[in-house]
Amino acid sequence: MITIKPFSPSAFVLILLACFVLFACTETNKTAQPIVKEEVYAFGTLVNITLYGLPEAKAYEIIGAVVNDFSYLENVWHPWKAGSLGRVNQLLPTKSAFSTGPGVIQLMTEARKLSRMSDDYFNPAIGALVKLWGFHQDEIPLGPPPSLADIENILKQKPSLDNLDIKGFTVRSNNEAVILDFGGFAKGYAVQQVIDHIKALGATNAIINVGGDLHVIGNKAGQPWRIGIRNPRGQGILASIDVEGSESVFTSGDYERFYEYQGKRYHHILDPQTGFPVQGVSSVTVVHSSPATADAAATALFVAGPVHWRNIAKQMSLHEVMLIDDKGVIYMTPEMQQRIRFEIEPRPKIIVQR
Ligand code: AMP
Ligand code: MG
């Protein structure tokens, strides 16, 4: 994420952790394989690192590398602070060409690919809108919501990553309304880089969990990792899924960052067409081999909503998706249905869409 969201250490994270601890302890006793866990605060949220089957000293060396990576990436990709992306955001509205670092160029290029695949439902060029709603800052805004005139003023300029002309390390925007906010993507993209790094350092069985979104590699003594998926309209876990090998589970939810103003909830996932927080969806979970894709896709499908999510999922080559609407109706792909296990009774209403 790189509206560096200050995720509150929610019940979900704690339950997820408890779930891992339970699972892990059993396995540790059975196999006497060491499992090392560390919880750190980085990237504006709680990061849980779980490493299985490594000597303790090696595990702590890897944990140190993970912490360094996250704190570096957090600074470079923060859209509003004085870092590489912050500088890009100052220069883009000038509409002149300027150079920037290869890391930021790659971030923009990867995001643009996913944005196009999602028909711009995932649109990191709407930073000005995110800022207008106040979701750019660490503190949750109190309201009131912005004026229609201010929203309309941004919408009519149609900011998109396609407004960027990227040549080598040079960027130019042809639309002064383009401000980049990778809040819906940078967390996944960072996890991808961190996973590559820890694999190079010798990790083969691990979970990197950033505020409840995670990527796993390998397994635990031949058993998959069991992951809980939060119930968006209640406490605790709605369902669980076993993941192993190289898989990510990312969820976008309207409960993550929101405020209530005069009895109405305004949350942080914005519809680039209307300029308002998306209505009618409470969460979307995506399982995918790439954390960067999973992160962008969960945001995109949240915006696409119950009517359009299936087509966009196909367009983005996603197989395992679950969308929960604001009435608690659950939509999912057949592939997700095969893997997910509901942990609540009565079992919720499910609509499987091919
Ligand atoms: P996520 O929790 O991954 O869905 O990311 C939500 C964050 O992405 C928000 O806090 C904003 O910073 C940003 N965002 C909001 N709406 C969109 C959108 N339609 N496309 C891309 N990023 C968005
Ligand atoms: Mg996302």
Furnish the topology, listing elements before pairings:
Layout: H1 11-31, E1 35-42, E2 45-52, H2 56-77, H3 84-91, E3 98-99, H4 102-117, H5 127-133, H6 148-155, E4 164-167, E5 170-173, H7 186-200, E6 206-210, E7 213-218, E8 225-230, E9 237-243, E10 245-253, E11 258-261, E12 264-267, E13 281-288, H8 291-315, E14 320-325, E15 330-332, H9 334-339, E16 341-342, E17 350-352
Parallel strand pairs: 15-17
Antiparallel strand pairs: 1-2, 2-6, 3-5, 4-5, 6-7, 7-10, 8-9, 9-16, 10-13, 11-12, 13-14, 14-15
Helix pairs in contact: 2-7, 4-8, 7-8
Magnesium ion is lined by residues 184-185, 252, 295-296, 298-299.
Short account of what is shown:
This protein has 354 residues and is α+β, with helices and mostly antiparallel strands. The protein contains nine helices and 17 strands. It starts with 10 loop residues before the first helix and ends with a strand.
